[in-house]
Write a structure and sequence with these properties.
Strand content of chain A: under 5%
Largest sheet of chain B: 4 strands, parallel
CATH architecture of the largest domain in chain B: 3-Layer(aba) Sandwich
Radius of gyration of chain A: 20 Å
Number of domains of chain A: 2
CATH architecture of the largest domain in chain A: Orthogonal Bundle
Distance between the termini of chain A: 49 Å
Number of helices of chain B: 14
Number of helices of chain A: 10
CATH class of the largest domain in chain B: Alpha Beta
Oligomer: heterodimer
Structural class of chain A: mainly alpha
Helix content of chain B: 40-55%
Order of helices and strands of chain A: HHHHHHHHHH
């Protein structure tokens, strides 16, 4: 059987009817349960146009029914570009993009995060920047006549980050 | 007029030409800028990892601007624009603001909700105005056909950004036309560049980027203009990769919006950092007679 077709068949024994309440508790995902599956979110989705597996409408449905294993399989949730096209189309104000962010957050809590995203967050935790201004870049900036930039206070940022669980979620700070 | 600058981290570390041209254009327009010791915004990805950390970081960044007396914080990066505006919007809720301020108080700071965050395009369009920009144009970019790429986070989500109609934006087209160039219509103009898929699925990111570039070329564009370092990076990298794959197609130079405006205002190629651009700028310079 083709993988594409089989992925459409859902075994209700895998469903967790309580999952939607956990999702709804996250700001941005509150309106999950008002989705009536019209599909207005999907035609403009750049990823849905180009892949067989990713459809905003289907993600919302899987979240509603509580198919956690499906949602967190592979990189499905991380295929979303965060372009917000779906959010502009939804007549119910479901905010599929923010719902997907909420689902990713739940995944992160359960230890599911793509390594590339972890690395970005580790760089942020250790330097205050995802892309750092290296010595070579400082020189290049000066050569172009750009001012030296004040670096953010890591002392303050460490306190700010310590109040969240970010370091634990991404497995610690980057080793310098 | 005085504004604070929020450069983010991709612009000052890798797209200095965008920063340089923005500073020069603002200077020509008589806008004074204040640099701040801000950090990264966390990128839009932070809301997918730890939303609360994202809000606290944004509030910390914004509190630095407030402390410096900044009323308008201008950013050249659409990602920063979305993250900071989302925080501004969410922190209008006083319970959330109190929770964030409890964290900020540990470092002696407070977020008051008194600073507006504007993307550079929006600032130029709304605060400076097209008339003032037109009056500064010394070298209209006659003959230049531009594919305008709005990208996502200059406009969307519109309920957070509250700028233009996300289905029919005009700002960048009108800025390009104020510079004397023509904005050409093309298919799927408002679609994402594809860059955010890069860390997850490079092929997908490439195919979205290529579809856009092909549509721009088919519409007869000589250049694409962007307002976001990620879109800029992706349109250049996609073309470089396409050439490596043996795709035969003309080079489509990618310009930061402030490079285009700067050139029209009479700045030289080096003053807008044009040598940093990696795709086909020789042809562009010839076309502009610069």
């Amino acid at each position: 059987m083709g993988g594409g077709m089989s992925s459409l068949i859902l075994d209700m024994r895998e469903a967790d009817p309580k999952f939607k309440y956990r999702v709804k508790a996250i700001p941005g995902a509150e309106k999950l349960t008002v989705c009536f599956q019209c599909g207005a979110c999907t035609p403009d989705c750049p990823v849905a146009k180009r892949t067989d597996i990713f459809r905003p409408r289907r993600i919302v449905r899987l979240a509603l029914l509580g198919f956690k294993k499906r949602l967190f399989s592979g990189n499905l949730l991380w295929l979303c570009l965060g372009c917000f096209s779906c959010m502009e189309m939804c007549p119910q104000g479901v905010k599929p993009t923010e719902l997907i962010e909420a689902l990713r957050e739940i995944g992160a809590e359960e230890g599911i995060l793509p390594p590339s995203i972890k690395d970005m967050m580790k760089a942020l935790l250790s330097t205050g920047r995802i892309h750092r201004i290296t010595k070579a870049r400082e020189k290049a900036r000066a050569k172009m006549g750009l001012p030296a930039l004040e670096e953010p206070s890591m002392e303050e940022l460490e306190t700010i980050f310590a109040s969240s669980g970010l370091a634990e979620l991404v497995g610690g700070r980057e080793v310098k | 007029m005085q504004v604070g600058l929020f450069l983010g981290c991709l612009v000052p570390s890798r797209f200095m030409a965008y920063e340089l041209s923005m500073r020069k254009v603002l200077e020509l327009l008589g806008v004074e800028v204040i640099d701040l010791g801000t950090a990264c915004c966390g990128s839009p990805y932070i809301f997918s990892v730890d939303r609360k950390a994202g809000l606290a970081l944004a509030a910390w960044n914004l509190s630095l601007a407030e402390e410096a007396g900044v009323k308008t914080l201008v950013t050249p990066c659409s990602g920063c624009n979305e993250v900071l505006n989302r925080a501004v919007e969410e922190l209008k809720d006083l319970d959330r603001r109190d929770a964030v301020n409890a964290i900020l108080s540990k470092v002696g700071r407070q977020y008051k909700g008194e600073v507006a965050v504007k993307h550079i395009v929006r600032f130029l369009y709304e605060d400076v105005g097209l008339d003032k920009i037109r009056a500064m144009v010394k070298r209209p970019l006659k003959g230049l056909k531009v594919a305008v790429h709005y990208g996502c986070h200059l406009l969307r989500p519109s309920e957070v950004i509250k700028f233009e109609n996300p289905h029919d934006p005009r700002s960048m087209d009108e800025l390009v036309e104020a510079a004397g160039a023509v904005s050409v219509p093309y298919e799927n103009k408002l679609e994402c560049c594809g860059f955010p898929a890069m860390p997850i699925d490079e092929e997908l990111a490439y195919s979205i980027g290529m579809d856009k570039i092909r549509a721009m070329l088919a519409a007869g564009a000589n250049a694409v203009v962007t307002a976001c370092p990620s879109c800029f990076l992706h349109f250049e990298n996609t073309q470089i990769l396409a050439r490596r794959k043996g795709e035969e197609m003309p080079a489509l130079p990618v310009l930061h919006i402030t490079q285009l405006l700067g050139l029209a205002m009479g700045l030289g190629p080096d003053e807008v950092g044009l040598r940093e651009n990696r795709v086909g700028t020789e042809g562009l310079l010839q076309l502009l007679g610069a």
